[in-house]
Amino acid sequence: MKTFILSAVIACVAFMSCEAPKNAATPTSNDVTLLEGSWELNYITGPRIAFDGLYPNKKPTLVVNVADKRISGNTGCNAYSGPLVAEKSSISFTGPIAVTKMMCVDGALGEKTYLEMLKKVNTFSVSGGTTLNLIAGDIILMSFIKK
């Protein structure tokens, strides 16, 4: 009986020492602060055209400034900017986004696809601090790599 009680006490002490502190501030995959920085598009869902065909000259970028609650970047042709609307895992790009109006001969379809997909996004996740996924429902619409 003494052996059983001693074993139980040792097991409890070992279990309690392995438990992480409950107030530790570790960012999760959907923490808004993980959005901070420059991202380059490496996947987009949509038309049945190869990624390099959509963006023959330049890949779209997304620059997130969490402190100023602003986004900016390039569509592959034109520059854009707008408000950052994000909280927990939700994100929205439906606010007023300003886009320059340069002529996009090679990347017109890519730019249109990029801007349309941004409007559909409603959540995000960041994997390993280097991959940003923009999601609608449970479908990844776009994936970015940290620059």
Summarize the structure.
By secondary structure, the protein is α+β, with helices and mostly antiparallel strands. The protein has helices spanning 2-18, 51-54, 108-120, and strands spanning 37-44, 61-65, 70-74, 79-83, 85-87, 90-92, 98-99, 123-127, 131-136, 139-146.
What does the model show?
This protein has 147 residues and is an alpha+beta fold. The protein has one domain: Lipocalin. Helices cover 23% and strands 34% of the residues. The protein is built from three helices and ten strands, in the order αβαββββββαβββ. The chain has helices at residues 2-18, 51-54, 108-120; strands at 37-44, 61-65, 70-74, 79-83, 85-87, 90-92, 98-99, 123-127, 131-136, 139-146. The strands form two sheets. An eight-stranded antiparallel sheet has the order 7-4-3-2-1-10-9-8, covered by helices on one side. β2 and β3 form a beta hairpin. The longest helix is centred in the N-terminal third of the chain and has 17 residues, at 2-18. The chain is globular.
Kindly list the characteristics that best describe this protein.
single chain; 147 residues; Lipocalin; alpha+beta
Overall 3D shape = globular
Query: Per CATH, which architecture?
Result: Beta Barrel
Biggest sheet layout = 8 strands, antiparallel
Sequence of secondary-structure elements: HEHEEEEEEHEEE
Across the major sheet, the strand order is 7-4-3-2-1-10-9-8
Instruction: Please give the domain count.
Output: 1
CATH class: Mainly Beta
Number of strands: 10
How much strand? Answer: 25-35%
What's the CATH topology label?
A: Lipocalin
The helix tally amounts to 3
Structural class label = alpha+beta
Low-confidence residue ranges: 4-26
Gyration radius over CA:
22 Å
* Average of pLDDT: 84
The span between the termini is 61 Å
Overall helicity: 10-25%
